[in-house]
Amino acid sequence: MPIELTVALCTCNPRQDLITRAINSIVPQLAELDGSAEFLIVDNNSAPPLQDAEYLRGLPVAVIREPIQGLTAARAAVVRNARGRIVLFVDDDNVLGAGYLKGVVAAFADSALGVLGGTVVPEYESPPPPWLSSFEDQLAIRRYPSDLMVETTSVPYTGHFPIGAGCSVLRAVALAHLTDCETHGRIEGRKGHALSSGEDLDLDLFALSAGYKLRVTGSLSLTHVIPERRTTEQYISRLVVGNIVSAAEVERKWSPRFGKPIFEFLRVGRLTVAGRRIFFRFLSPFSIRGRIKQLVWDEIARTRQRQRTNAVAA
Questions:
Q1: Which partner for 141 in 135, 136, 281, 283 could form a disulfide, CB atoms 3.0-4.6 Å apart?
Q2: Domain ranges in the chain?
Q3: pLDDT tens digits for 30-57?
Q4: CATH code of domain 5-228
């Protein structure tokens, strides 16, 4: 029987309890697809190698090792090795909801669909601080209603673009994207301690440029387990700055190809940026939210300055 779906989990030195939960949410669903799905784990230089992991023995999973460090390289290894018509990416701290695999396959009966995403709900290992609710989207949380379905066929970016966790893509689109990156460069995902991102939006934008549509649906749901260290002011501060830097990189790559802006917030006027910086600088001594927002607008100001400098140089 042809392989319809490749489920791929990319990881490096995972916590055994988390990756075991992720695997246990996938394996029972493989049987629901009657042999038309495969399960790959990409070991991105774990020590010791996952090939030797006792908890993987006897499971219907193939482990491949990717020596080039980083999420982008690991996902590229998936695309090259997958046999499925569709590839579903799962992180090692994701727990798929019931029916996720069948829902993915059913969605791609639509031949115009290129990339699909769903709901991502958090499971905090420790109670999060109240201020964190303002920044949940930075943690790849997407609390979509169960009946939501939004399709996108053009830019600019909205909050309804598929993100990496639980994202699925036609393998033909993903292969074409790898080839395109050889010419136009690729956006790097997480690598080591660097909080870079944007590789998922890079794929989304390529799919749009190739004439496919994007879809997010609340009927597909996964749980993202978030440890306490990712809910601190220090971590979220690094994350929001990293996400703005990544957005600017995506903007540089894709805005010329679409002939229009990708991110509206990177086009706001100087007076607006200056006003927001002053406002949040005033608030920063009194609240964590104010301090993080000040970092956001300071980084946007630096990005805008670089854009103006590059425009003059061109």
A1: 136
A2: 5-228, 236-313
A3: 999 999 999 999 999 999 999 889 999 9
A4: 3.90.550.10
